[in-house]
Design brief:
CATH superfamily: P-loop containing nucleotide triphosphate hydrolases
Helix content: 25-40%
Distance between the termini: 12 Å
Radius of gyration: 14 Å
CATH class: Alpha Beta
Shape: globular
Strand order of the largest sheet: 1-7-6-2-5-4-3
Order of helices and strands: EHEHEEHEEEH
Bound molecules: adenosine-5'-diphosphate, magnesium ion
CATH architecture: 3-Layer(aba) Sandwich
Number of domains: 1
Structural class: alpha/beta
Strand content: 25-35%
């Protein structure tokens, strides 16, 4: 299992995919989200938050790098776009080793800090409302999760 792919035709469908993923996650899991502006990274995170029982509205954390939300598990929502080209460590390990789920938009900008076990997700724009969402599991736990999602 090196990849699972979903095609969604509305933002609601993208949220549903994320919501399904949320039910399979465990404390300390790290998810990276890659994709152009408008691909649906924040939309995906909203669905994930809903699945984790987050009641507050999730918005893009562009001006804060990380926002924390309380659900059944804490959700740490990062947008590290502004860290491009810097090697600043904002204390990533505290989040990655914490009790919550970490979701990182533009994760390639902090490659050197990412844990080896993680779920890499890439969103591609096919047309205005169609997205191709690819899951690339890194490590056995995430491979199992992807197998479950592919069922
Ligand atoms: P990003 O965080 O990647 O910049 P956003 O989630 O903020 O992207 O924005 C995605 C935009 O695309 C939203 O306006 C959303 O309504 C729209 N959209 C249209 N179709 C889809 C789809 N299938 N999945 C996700 N978003 C979609
Ligand atoms: Mg975003």
């Amino acid at each position: 299992m090196n990849k699972v792919e979903f095609i969604t035709k509305t933002s609601e469908e993208t949220k549903k995919v994320a919501e399904r993923l949320a039910t399979l996650l465990r404390p300390g899991d790290v998810i990276t989200l890659e994709g152009d502006l408008g691909a649906g990274k924040t939309t995906f995170t909203k669905g994930l938050g809903f699945g984790l029982g987050v009641k507050r509205t999730i918005n893009s954390p562009t001006f804060t790098i990380v926002k924390e939300y309380l659900g059944e598990l804490p959700l740490y929502h990062m947008d590290v776009y502004r860290l491009e080209g810097s090697d600043e460590d904002i204390g990533f390990d505290e989040y990655f080793n914490g009790d919550g789920i970490t979701v990182i938009e533009w994760a390639s900008f902090i490659k050197e800090f990412l844990p080896t076990n993680r779920l890499d997700i890439v969103l591609r724009v096919k047309d205005e409302n169609t997205r191709i969402i690819s899951f690339y599991p890194k490590g056995n736990d995430f491979e199992k999760i992807c197998e479950e999602l592919a069922r």
